[in-house]
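Researcher: Here's the sequence for the chain we discussed earlier.
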Amino acid sequence: MILAVILAISGAIFYSADMIKDYYIKSKLDPRVELMKASQNTAKAKAFRYTLNSGFTVDERKEVISRVVGEKSRGNTHIKGEMVNTPVDIYYIDRTIYNYDTFSKHWLEIDSGTSQAEELMISELNPLSNFRFREVSRVEKQGFEKIDGAECLVVKCSPTVESKLLETRWMDFEYRLWIDYKQSWIRKGVLYAVNKKTGKTKLYIEATLSDFNDSIEIKPPDMKKK
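Model: Thanks. This is the structure I predict for it:
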């Protein structure tokens, strides 16, 4: 009985020590520093998987732009899902786009004319393009949440963006980012923006990222398969 009590007390002490250490580490995190570190590290990832949902609201009416799951590996990309109410299955491999046409039930092969997915102006093929900042003046710590088991620092910021696709039509960007501060990855990001022309239409894009630097092989589809 006495031994059980001693073990219980010892366990409680160690547990409390871990809690104190965890609290201390979290309290010392600088949200701006962690954001910069995670942004740079995530941009260098050679491979990852992701989901991306986007849409806009007009007069409180929600419209879906896209819902896709994707994977990237060494510049090659594969996405599948829905864009503008149309099923999509697209590969981008070595300058070539393979797009499955649901009407003809055939694969279409198109030379993109570029080796850079960013130049295609399709954010679904390059989700990180939505989360590249030219300048971040202020970063606010929002708290902590878990994403796929990883403890994340949640931050909020209103940066100027690098994406020409976003900058051309949208303004007043607001971001929430979930930063895996132990591994320096951005696990999740949500952005909101307002249309420059109308001032009423609001954009949202939500992306989750996982399986960083996993071995992901992306091959062209079987062109004969319908």
